Amino acid sequence: MNSIIKKIKEETQKSADIVIRDILINNEKIYLVFSEVLSDGEYINDFILKKLTVINTNNSLFTYIYNNLPSNSIKEIKENEILKNIFQGFCILIIEDRYIAVEAKSVLDRGISQTETEVSLIGPKDAFTENFNKNLGLIRKRLRTENLIVNLFMLGKESNTKVGLCFMKTIADNKLVNKVKEKLEKINIDGIIDTGYIREILLDKESIFPTVNITERPDTVAQALLEGKVVVIVDNTPYAMIIPTFFIDFFHTPDDYYQKSFNITFIRIIRLLAFIIAIFLPAYYISVTTHNPESIPINLLINFSSQRLGVPFPGFIEAFLMIICFEILRESDARIPSKVGTSVSILGGLVIGEAAVSAGIVSPIMIIVIAISMISGLLFTSNSLIYSIRYFRIILLILSAFFGLFGLFIGMMILITKLCSIDSFGYPYTAPIAPIIKTELRDSIIKTRGGEKRLRNPMLASKNIVRGKNYEQD
Question: Where are the alpha helices (DSSP H) in 291-314?
Answer without folding.
Answer: 298-307
